[in-house]
Amino acid sequence: MKLLQHRLKLMLKTKNILVPVLVWTVWLLLMTSGNRWNLFLDNWFMSVTMAVGSFIAGSTSEGGGAVAFPVMTLLFDIKPAVARDFSLMIQSVGMTAAAIAIFQNRIPIESRALIFAGLGGALGIILGLEVIAPYLPAVATKMFFVSLWLSFGVALLWMNRDRQRRLWQRIPDFKQHDALILIAVGAIGGIVSAITGSGLDILTFSLLVLAFRIDEKVATPTSVILMASNALVGFLWRLQFSANPILSDTWNYWWVSIPVVVIGAPMGARFIAKRSNIFVVRLLLTSIIIQFSAALLILPLTTHLILFSIATFLLGSVLFLSMIYGGNQRPSQKKIVRFQIQQDSEKESITILK
Questions:
Q1: Could you report the per-residue pLDDT of 243-292, keeping only the tens digit for each?
Q2: pLDDT tens, position by position, 280-328
């Protein structure tokens, strides 16, 4: 029996390295045939950035773009459109590798959220790329990113006041209107991805955790797979259908980051599978606070930008807190509350009788 278990573990490890080895092989061939090795001289900082970003992408609901976008736009003053394109391109590799690792390791996910939120996300990112993103000023795009995620952090912190709340592995009492909600939130998330390079992952994660009361350890890998699909749609759309081509600098960043993310993202996915819910929450909050603080220190704050940031934060807070309210009103949640009240009443009756 022990020998069989050992062989199964060995087979699982072998499967986990197949994708990185395949990507590395193709990457080495293309780097050599295209004589691209000199790209590391000027773009090595992106390899370092994505070493951290890919691990966070695989282990949290934030995609690699959630790290790449603020670092590129705030720290290195790279144009948001370039950072957005790079985020979509690199997540097409790293998040897809993490998604494969999730499936291989049979990490629990919410499959219905993948279908419906993924559909909405695909429609949203195409709409955002063509209609919304081109008209947002660069500095506003940067502040939009950090302010929206700050509102998400506040909502997540509020939700986790109750450590004893009931968590689900799948959406309970799934109805047709739940599918419509997933599509709608997925579309909003896709639009945000079109602006900042990530968004579908965070918004869907929020919906699953705040409204549907899904366990964070199920919502996280679900959001990772969703962002992988959204990044692929966005990358392919930019490559084939957009009027403005992807700039050469973006491709250079991409080439030097591929070998890093294909290892870091799957490592993050396996790392988080063994961690507690509160660890996931703390990790997310830490990254959100760091990003917002950096924006305040680096960006040239004007009255209009501050007002825009406050408005984004308030709208985001309304969106996320409405998810919490909606979760409290769900029939499955009310059943739990009534059951808890009944239990408390029975305990009080027993105490009185004693």
A1: 889 999 999 999 999 998 888 777 776 776 667 767 767 777 887 888 88
A2: 677 778 878 888 888 888 888 889 999 999 999 999 999 888 888 887 7
| Residue with token string 């350890």 | 217
| Residue 282, both tokens | 């703390």
Give the model confidence (pLDDT) of 167-226 as tens digits: 788 998 899 999 999 999 999 999 999 998 888 988 898 899 888 989 878 998 899 899
Contact in structure between 222 and 109 (CB atoms under 8 Å): yes
Tokens of 143: 């502040």
The tokens 């990113």 sit on which residue?
A: 145
Which of 257, 137, 218 is CA-nearest to residue 226?
Answer: 218
* Full-model pTM: 0.80
CB-based contact 104:211 (threshold 8 Å): no
